[in-house]
Design brief:
Number of strands: 0
Distance between the termini: 40 Å
Order of helices and strands: HHHH
Shape: extended
Largest sheet: none
Number of domains: 1
Structural class: mainly alpha
Strand content: under 5%
Radius of gyration: 17 Å
Length: 104
């Protein structure tokens, strides 16, 4: 059985709102935290040439947890997820990714 987004009205509603240029705050916050966690993990992997011993893996998990707690706390305190980026459409995000990729 194949999963289709159209079979879940909640997801369809969220995608429509994003395409209309309005992103719910919790989605912006969640995406920001996913990017933070991914960035820290990638930084650790790059630092140790993609070879993590058990000790370094524990340091990475601790580092990810620490950075996640600090970043999420500060984001909630200063409400960085609640401002202008909320009114970004998927087309704007695609343009940003394209310009960043080409510029790098």
């Amino acid at each position: 059985m194949m999963f289709r987004i159209s079979s879940v009205p909640f997801l369809v509603n969220i995608i429509k709102r994003i395409d209309e240029g309005y992103s719910p705050r919790w989605i912006v916050f969640l995406v920001d935290m996913v990017i933070v966690v991914f960035s820290i993990m990638l930084a650790f992997l790059l630092r140790f040439n993609f070879v993590l011993t058990d000790d370094y893996r524990r340091y990475m998990y601790f580092g990810v947890l620490l950075v996640f707690l600090v970043r999420s706390s500060l984001s909630l305190i200063f409400k960085t997820y609640a401002h202008i980026i909320r009114h970004t459409s998927s087309l704007d995000i695609a343009r940003l990714i394209l310009s960043t990729s080409v510029g790098s």
